[in-house]
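Interim report to the steering committee. The following record documents the input for Ferrochelatase (329 residues).
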Amino acid sequence: MSDQARFGVLMANLGTPEAPTPEAVRTYLGEFLWDPRVIDISRPVWWAILNGFVLRTRPKKVAEAYASIWTEDGSPLMSVSLKQQRALKAELKARFGVDVPVALAMTYGKPSMEEAGLELRRAGVERIVVLPMYPQFSRSTTAAVFDRLAKALKPCPHLPELRMIRDFHDHPGYIKALANSVREHWQQLGKQGHLLMSYHGVPKRYAEEGDPYPRHCERTSALVAEELGLGPDEWTMTYQSRFGREEWLKPYTDEVLTAWGKEGREHVDVMCPAFSADCLETLEEIAMQNKEFFQDAGGGEYHYIPALNDRDDHVAMLASLVEQHTQGW
Ligand SMILES: C=CC1=C(C)c2cc3[nH]c(cc4nc(cc5[nH]c(cc1n2)c(C)c5CCC(=O)O)C(CCC(=O)O)=C4C)c(C)c3C=C
Ligand SMILES: [Fe+2]
Ligand SMILES: [Fe+2]
């Protein structure tokens, strides 16, 4: 028997700048925001706005935000993704009894889909299960992974067999891992506050055009609340990280937290179930910026509950997804 599985895993996430500098952030945003899956307005109009305004003004401010969360190991999104890759490989080896190649790819920047594809090809795999690290499907994230992979495969004369994990927003292992992370927070710091589940937003129009993302977020929230035995008054869901002038999914996280601060609420626990890995949008926007909005408005204790990152129960759930989607291989 061979000591390596006949399939490999392509773990995909968004991508992140290579350094917390305006130049590196400009390169990153230039690639990310030019993707029509992310911003779908007419190309000539968007080209003028992106290059004439966004990429001239935003990188400096955003680089400062990245600098505030940067670690010795680089961007948190990258360092956590590398840990997840290693942990998933170890968990799959334990389950399958053979090495299962796991390559990491980012939709934007490095490691690219081409690099990850080559890594899997060198490992001799002919079958690939694609694991976008987005529990809830959105055209702006999961579909962008699909497009980027298809682009990387364009020059190939022969394709690997592919299966794609579209979403896992209601997977029992995912819901349990989220609930466990909340329970652990309560064990350490006490169960006193309202639970806010804040999701990255998308333009409202995308949902009206058929993106199932808000339905998935609503279902995740309801299942987490049920698993924790929370009543309707004990939790709320909101959407964060608005970009541009269009209306996005509501309610907006920053507005809700500011209002709660004004009401003088004494304690809020915030978690971000759409983020598999801690990143700029959780560590800076939620754990720092929104904490300030809440407390400056008059709110009390504010706790951010970390993303699932490389927790054992998260990695076990990811391995179960791989097992489920490689049946028959
Ligand atoms: C969790 C799922 C995500 C969805 C859905 C999503 C949609 C979406 N995002 C933008 C614009 C930006 N997002 C930015 C950062 C960012 N977004 C996600 C995830 C989702 N985005 C992550 C994990 C990150 C963090 C990356 C990191 O390096 O840590 C940014 C960059 C920061 C900034 O300039 O504010 C932008 C821009 C749009 C327009 C969109 C849906 C249409
Ligand atoms: Fe985003
Ligand atoms: Fe708390």
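The radius of gyration is 20 Å. The committee is asked to note this result when reviewing the revised timeline.
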